[in-house]
Amino acid sequence: MVTRRTRIDITLAEAAELSHALFSSDSALARDLAPVFSDIAAGRLSAVELAIDGAAQSNDENLIVIDELAINTASRSVALSGTPVQLTPKEFDILAFLATNRGTVFSKEEIYQAVWNDRYLLDSSNIMAFIRKIRKKIEPEPDNPRYLLTVWGVGYKMCE
Known about the structure:
Elements: H1 12-23, H2 28-33, H3 39-55, E1 63-66, E2 69-72, E3 77-80, E4 83-85, H4 89-100, H5 108-116, H6 125-138, E5 148-151, E6 155-158
Antiparallel strand pairs: 1-2, 2-3, 3-4, 5-6
């Protein structure tokens, strides 16, 4: 059996329209296609749709979507599988910094300097505590993170 995959790129407006068409309770299409869409796909669309609310007045460049995690840097909002996540201002700054530079490894010192705009104080436990708190809020399994990763001996990065 040959399986073919096709990539479909859509805009945020199209994603919201698609999400509404597929997942509204009165949609015949939703009933017909419900078995086809997994919870993960639904969660991704919900995260995008939720983040769209804050992005309506901003550009697509303000929206970062990583699997089920949606970060809107303009509205400073975060959603996981469509559910809003409450972060403190510094937690959001750290998450947004790492997500904006996705895949790049940053030391604790570099994160501190970028977020606090100040020289690094020699206390690495401060950044570690923030990372731990962020993971508890955005990771399905904080002890086995999939978004906010540790690069042992170097620092932290957002998954690629």
